[in-house]
Every structure is written in structure tokens, then in C-alpha cells.
């Protein structure tokens, strides 16, 4: 079981593609928010009603480690991180080889910023079960955030070699290929991520950027539009849509897209820069 299937945005710095690929127009790569995992937090699973129901299960089965693990996952999804940690601690105390609980607890540690404890838990989960794909993906995200790109790539690769059906492995490996300029490989990975998680906007946005880098503007535009359709609050996708309009010379539509991105993320510099360009050009 995964706890918290979500981090928003894209922490990989894709602005390094700017000059060479877009003739001075900045690729919109959101760098200010944590990322790497697809989808959005399932608030329903973290609701007070669901947690209350799970607490009843715990009360009836106080020695069942899985009951604590499941409730801990729901608490994590609801943003109740300290309570989630307590449940994962109990699950591990009851079952010391509970590798899923170690991996879930690691993700909570990541979210509260304790990267050392997160790494220790991922390592322990992998030590117990060397074939547990979720732990490799989680640790890979931890490495990627720490700019340990090769270590991150190796973990995503390992998860894929284990025949994971988790879209995050392909999405995150695609991000690494993208920053290395290997856009055809990135597109393949983003496409696989889309097939595994068709309701996630991030791989559409990622694939669109690689299409854009290959000057396949129509494909890029279609992907940015789909990213917006799936998540209308994706400021990066709005900015990238604006960039396509700008490249086409439609400054009015570009300004509208950039303005929406800036409304959603007022400190997002690529949106502000784009709006400034098309406004000054008018």
C-alpha cells in the first residue's frame, strides 16, 4: 500500500533547455514545490469519516499491524503526519519485518523534511524485501530531490525491471532523461506513465515539454491542453500552453494563458516572464 500518492509540480530543473531549444523563450519548469509522484492526495480516504471507521477496526484488532498501517495511510492522506507516524511505529513494533509500513513511514518523513530518517526507512524496506518496487520509487524520489541523479535513475530503473505498474517510476525516469536531453526516451517513459495513470496531468505536461524540445509543437500543444483538462490548477501547464501560443504569434491567447498561470501561482517566474514578454510586445 502506498501512502500519499501525491506531490505536485516538477522539481526537475528543465529550464536548462531554454536557450538551445526555444530561442530564448523559457520552458516552464516548476521548481518551487515538492514533486515526483503522480496524482493528487485522495482526500476522501483521509476524511474524518474514513479515519473514524478505520479506528473502529483498530479498536477491534489492537494487535493487528495491518490495521495500523491502513489507518496510518489514511491519516497521511489527510495531512495528519504525526498521527500517521505513530500508527506506522506501532505497526512496525507489532511486525518488525513489515516492509510496507517502513516505506509508508519513509514517505511521511519525506513530507515533514526528515530526509535521513526517510532514507533509513526506505533502505530497511528494501533490505527486508529487495523486490518491493514502491520503496525503490520512494527512495529514487528522495535521491532526485537531493540531486543524486544517478542514484535516483538506478532506483527507478530497478522498479521498472521489477515490472512495476506504478506510473511514478516511468514518469520520474522520464524527467531524468529529459534533463539529459534524451527526449525520445523521455517521451516513451511519459507515454508509459500515461497508460498506467491516464488521469494524471504531470506526464502529459512532461511529454509536452519533450515534444516542444523536438519542435513538435502540435503534439506539445495537445499534451499541455490535456494536462490542463485533467488539472485546471496546473500553473506549469497553463504557462506552457501560453508558450505555444506565443510561438504561434497569438499574443492575446498567450497572455490569457500566462495570466491564468500567474493567478494560480503568483510567484511562478516563467508565467510572470511570459506575461511580461507578450505584454511588452503588444
TrEMBL record:
SUPFAM superfamilies: TPR-like (SSF48452). GO terms for biological process: receptor-mediated virion attachment to host cell. Keywords: Repeat, Signal, TPR repeat, Transferase. Transmembrane segments: none annotated. TPR repeats lie at residues 65-98, 99-132, 133-166, 167-200, 201-234, 235-268. Residues 1-28 form the signal peptide. One of its GO terms (molecular function) is transferase activity. InterPro entries: TPR-like_helical_dom_sf (IPR011990), TPR_2 (IPR013105), TPR_rpt (IPR019734), Ycf3 (IPR050498). One of its GO terms (cellular component) is cell outer membrane. This is GlcNAc transferase.
Amino acid at each position: 500500500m502506498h501512502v500519499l500518492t501525491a506531490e505536485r509540480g516538477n522539481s526537475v530543473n528543465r529550464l536548462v533547455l531554454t536557450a538551445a531549444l526555444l530561442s530564448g523563450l523559457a520552458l516552464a519548469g516548476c521548481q518551487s514545490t515538492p514533486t515526483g509522484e503522480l496524482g493528487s492526495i485522495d482526500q476522501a480516504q483521509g476524511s474524518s469519516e474514513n479515519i473514524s471507521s478505520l479506528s473502529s477496526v483498530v479498536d477491534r484488532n489492537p494487535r493487528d499491524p495491518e490495521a495500523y498501517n491502513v489507518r496510518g495511510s489514511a491519516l497521511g492522506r489527510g495531512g495528519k503526519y504525526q498521527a500517521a507516524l505513530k500508527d506506522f511505529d506501532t505497526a512496525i513494533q507489532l511486525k518488525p519485518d513489515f516492509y510496507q509500513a517502513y516505506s509508508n513511514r519513509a514517505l511521511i518523513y519525506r513530507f515533514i523534511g526528515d530526509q535521513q530518517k526517510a532514507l533509513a526507512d526506505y533502505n530497511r524496506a528494501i533490505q527486508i524485501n529487495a523486490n518491493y518496487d514502491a520503496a525503490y520509487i520512494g527512495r529514487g524520489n528522495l535521491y532526485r530531490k537531493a540531486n543524486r541523479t544517478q542514484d535516483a535513475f538506478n532506483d527507478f530503473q530497478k522498479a521498472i525491471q521489477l515490472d512495476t505498474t506504478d506510473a511514478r517510476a516511468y514518469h520520474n525516469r522520464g524527467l531524468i532523461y529529459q534533463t539529459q536531453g534524451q527526449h525520445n526516451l523521455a517521451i516513451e517513459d511519459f507515454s508509459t506513465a500515461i497508460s498506467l495513470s491516464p488521469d494524471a496531468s504531470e506526464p502529459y505536461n512532461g511529454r509536452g515539454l519533450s515534444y516542444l524540445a523536438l519542435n513538435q509543437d502540435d503534439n506539445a500543444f495537445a499534451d499541455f491542453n490535456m494536462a490542463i483538462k485533467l488539472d485546471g490548477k496546473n500553473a506549469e501547464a497553463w504557462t506552457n500552453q501560453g508558450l505555444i501560443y506565443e510561438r504561434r504569434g497569438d499574443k492575446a491567447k498567450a497572455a490569457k494563458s500566462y495570466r491564468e498561470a500567474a493567478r494560480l501561482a503568483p510567484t511562478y517566474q516563467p508565467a510572470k516572464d511570459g506575461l511580461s514578454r507578450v505584454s511588452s510586445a503588444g
